[in-house]
Design goal:
With 238 residues, the protein is of the alpha/beta class. The chain is 47% helix and 21% strand.
Length: 238
């Protein structure tokens, strides 16, 4: 839950290691959530300067509470805005690395993320993207439950191929295990159930339960065997 994705701490650390960031590296994270990736980069890389771009006030505020030390030291800046707004005022500034972990909707989709995020990275820098993929052909029932379309994702190999097609060099990739999916999805479900139990008078109780339980049902029936999630460490040309 800290990472707002099913990729756990060990492989997050491995991805950060493989980014090869040097002293004073500048890193931006689009859809940064609670800024856990950036906080770990700030702790691991001397004098790193990290910028979290997060449109949701709830997550931006939580990130500020969690990482006040990094903010005060100048290692982390959290901006509550969209990716489009951030890029519109970026000017000539470029970063050593960019992240987009399960937030490719910030640019529209995975392919536009590969292009849009890479455009703000220095030549030879690194882009880290986490994205879903189909482990097998999704059933019509699952697509209906998701409210989505099969074309929204490709395969794990397809994610790698699309990066290569856009001039990026894959350096490393990993995919979520079934155990990681279980921890993440059941943790989300358990969190909602606990909140409702502790706050029975919350006016959003019924809606929260209905959404959470519907999602849990679709995960158990179809999602665990159908939907994958991968992290891709990619080198920008230059």
């Amino acid at each position: 839950m800290d990472f707002c994705s099913p990729i756990g701490a060990a492989r997050t650390s491995r991805a950060i290691e493989l980014m090869g960031l040097g002293q004073g590296a500048e890193v931006v994270d689009f859809g940064a959530g609670k800024c856990e990736w950036l906080a770990r980069i700030a702790a691991a890389v001397s004098s790193a300067r990290c910028v979290g771009v997060e449109p949701a006030a709830m997550f931006a505020d939580e990130a500020r509470r969690r990482h006040s030390k990094q903010i005060q030291s100048g290692g982390l800046e959290i901006l509550q805005c969209s990716a489009a707004d951030f890029l519109a005022r970026l000017g000539e500034r470029r970063f050593d690395a960019a992240l987009c972990i399960g937030s490719t909707h910030a640019f529209g989709d995975y392919e536009r993320t590969l292009t849009g995020a890479a455009a703000c990275i220095k030549p030879g820098g690194v882009l880290v993207v986490a994205e879903g993929y189909w482990k097998k052909k999704p059933s019509p029932e699952y697509l209906k439950a998701l409210g989505g379309d099969e074309s929204e994702f490709t395969t794990h190999a397809g994610n790698v191929e699309r990066a290569i097609e856009r001039g990026l060099t894959p350096l490393w990739a990993c995919t979520v295990t079934d155990d990681e999916w279980d921890e993440y999805e059941w943790g989300y479900s358990r969190g909602i159930e606990s909140w409702v139990r502790e706050h029975p008078n919350d006016p959003d109780v019924d809606a929260m339960l209905a959404r959470s339980r519907s999602w849990r049902e679709s995960f158990v029936k179809w999602g665990r065997d159908t939907l994958g999630f991968g992290v891709y460490v990619l080198r920008v040309a230059g």
